[in-house]
Amino acid sequence: MPSPIDIKEKVYLSPYNTMGIQAVADFFVEVHSVSELKVALRYSKTNALRTMILGGGSNVLFTTDFKGLVILNRIEGVEIVSDSDQEVILKAGAGENWHELVLYCVDKGYGGIENLSLIPGTVGAAPIQNIGAYGVELVDVFVELELLDRESEDIRTLSKSECNFGYRDSVFKRELKDKVIITSVTLKLSKSGNPNYEYASLKQNLKSKGIDEPTIKQVSDAVIEVRQSKLPDPDEIGNTGSFFKNPVIPVFQYDELKQTFPDLPGYPVTERQVKVPAGWLIEKAGWKGKRNGNAGVHDKQALVLVNHGNATGEELLELAGLIQGSVKEKFEINLIPEVNLIN
Ligand SMILES: Cc1cc2nc3c(=O)[nH]c(=O)nc-3n(C[C@H](O)[C@H](O)[C@H](O)COP(=O)(O)OP(=O)(O)OC[C@H]3O[C@@H](n4cnc5c(N)ncnc54)[C@H](O)[C@@H]3O)c2cc1C
């Protein structure tokens, strides 16, 4: 019987990752439903292929060609699960575009994810690193998700606590890494029209427009404006946004570093821990605007590594390693990549 899915061989992945890395997948398939996803997984088992699931490719670095099957998730659909005067519960297919979902919610007056406007990628990848921006994280609106267990092919529901969300972290980066595929995500959004605009650059943007009590649409517009002024557009220069996580260090280490680097910024996380901006460390280590072949550090935002054209995954990985080495030497701090390294 012919397969209902279209498995292609030797596919260039550059159109499918925002870094624009020219890696090749041995096999590649686009799936639009859970049943197609199951067929793809069975194909990989029958043919003993490794698989990886790809959404928007905005948080991956292909360090080499992918020897296996890349499954491009395009499972769509947005469903209102419940609707009351105060809130709405919404379930979205994992292959939906995240920013389009945000715009849909903003348009309907459903508040809670407007601060996460313009984050590239798919809904299904949002829980992987608990996406966050401008004072809001996915966890703040998250209810549950559905996933497909790769081994058993069972569909399971995971609650918020089971996802174990942290700063750019979740169970999917740890115990469940490469074991499950998220197929839908359910969010609880507010109809109270009470957006969070405490984040300094957001507040400043709104203030400059004379807006004291913004609507969720005004917050979304401000987030989009601030992001566009700060972050390079992957359509213009390949990148994956922040390449490293902002390190969280003990207060005593922060206090010690402050003696040598009095202008080191820091944001308390707990009584004992401080988050320091990785971009600041990289800039002070002298990397802003530097290149390693076609791989480079952005000249305005040192946390963003860029592809100046035809950079290989290896070149970017090497650059990342050099940066980690000099930040470690100068500050005794380990930088951990936020981006998922795929080999
Ligand atoms: C310009 C730019 C700005 C960014 N800004 C932010 C920001 O402000 N905040 C932030 O948190 N992130 C940011 N990012 C990172 C990125 O957009 C997010 O991490 C996003 O959620 C990735 O979605 P994706 O669909 O592109 O994931 P992909 O890159 O396709 O995948 C990322 C990882 O998740 C896995 N994965 C993908 N889909 C699934 C699924 N359905 N089930 C299981 N595993 C899956 C993949 O295998 C891979 O390991 C930015 C990236 C760029 C390029």
Top keywords for this entry?
five-stranded antiparallel β-sheet, globular, Uridine Diphospho-n-acetylenolpyruvylglucosamine Reductase, domain 2, 8 helices, Uridine Diphospho-n-acetylenolpyruvylglucosamine Reductase, domain 1, four-stranded mixed β-sheet, Uridine Diphospho-n-acetylenolpyruvylglucosamine Reductase, domain 3, 343 residues, binds flavin-adenine dinucleotide, 27% strand, alpha+beta, 3 domains
Output the CATH class name of the largest domain: Alpha Beta
Q: Main beta sheet: strand number and arrangement?
A: 5 strands, antiparallel
Number of DSSP-assigned strands: 20
How does the overall form come out from the CA principal axes? globular
The percent of residues in helical segments reads 25-40%
Q: What structural class is derived from the secondary structure elements?
A: alpha+beta
Low-confidence spans: none
Q: Taking all residues together, what is the mean pLDDT? A: 96
- What value does the Rg take, in angstroms? 21 Å
Counting structural domains, the number is 3
Tally of separate helices: 8
| Distinct ligands | flavin-adenine dinucleotide
- What is the beta-strand fraction? 25-35%
Task: Identify the CATH architecture of the largest domain.
Answer: 2-Layer Sandwich
The CATH topology name of the largest domain reads Uridine Diphospho-n-acetylenolpyruvylglucosamine Reductase, domain 3
Strand order of the biggest β-sheet: 6-7-12-10-11
